[in-house]
Amino acid sequence: MPSSANASLITLINPSAQASEDFKSLRTKLNYSYKSENMKSFLITSIKSQEGKSVLAANLAISYAQAGKRVLLIDANLRAPMLHKFFHMENHMGLSDLLSGKKHPGNVPITTYVDGLSLLPAGAETGLHATELLASNYLKLALDQFSTEYDMIFVDSSAANKTADSFLLAVHCDGVVLAVKKRTVKQEEVVTFKQNLDAIKGNLVGFVFIDFEK
Q: The CobQ/CobB/MinD/ParA nucleotide binding domain covers which part of the protein (predicted)?
């Protein structure tokens, strides 16, 4: 672990902190609730930006890696990628290169300094064409292959109230976890999100109420 590990990675820099214990508790709940259904891939999203979903995705992935699982963390927020910064990694190549057909899935994920955890950064080809890239047939093919190589896959996406990106991803993930920061999201916004997710047969497995800063 680098001496300047990102402060957002609480499960890594302070495993005994209460927040780290909370992530362990969430990990346990996911294990017991969905083990029989063999669910591996989870989309971590939020209704609005700045809700803490990237912090949630990264720490949950680390928590699973600390439990001995082979974990892949995917930054599918092609508009404002963040995860490579958490792990002090480059973003020259990643998901966008895979979705554009320029790279093979086996050549893209990068091993992090966390044992058992690999990161698939967003990649350099992002921005205006994000929705088109996420609608690519390569997305399902990649996730199917990753499911044979990793025990757990966590996908971080852009906020759902701005684009269709998270719904394009939800179709191909086993479950969706919605990060909701306290006092920022209205009940009717959550209801609308659930209705939109149901319309595409997405599987909302739960909410995580966030009470920490991004």
A: 43-90
Q: H/E/C letters for each residue in 31-59?
A: HHHHHHHCCCEEEEEECCCCCCHHHHHHH
Query: How buried is residue 204: exposed, middle or buried, by Cβ count under 10 Å (0-12/13-18/19+)?
Result: middle
Is residue 47 a contact partner of residue 193, using CB atoms and an 8 Å limit?
A: yes
| Domains identified in the chain, total number | 1
- pTM for this one? 0.92
pLDDT in tens, 164-209: 999 999 999 999 999 998 778 888 999 999 999 999 999 999 999 8
Print the domain residue range for 187. 41-210
